[in-house]
Amino acid sequence: MDDGELREIKRIARRSRMTVAEWVRQALRTARRQEPLAPADRKLQVVREAARHSYPTGDIGQILDEIERGYCEGPA
Prior knowledge:
- The chain has 76 residues and is mainly α.
- It has a domain of 53 residues.
- Helices cover 71% and strands 0% of the residues.
- It contains four helices and no strands.
- The radius of gyration is 25 Å and the shape is elongated.
- It starts with a helix and ends with a helix.
């Protein structure tokens, strides 16, 4: 890191009323949260596998009513 970058980080940290160390920790946490947990190709594989199946669809109100009726009727 060059002197200019360090000066800018110090200025930003000071403006945020924190130490450079705390600012760096927060910046690293933010960067880590933004990093995907799984590789993109794995996510695509999961979506493709899910798309091969048929799932029940319908009006959301009707589906919720059916679910509620299932809870009220108890075990079969």
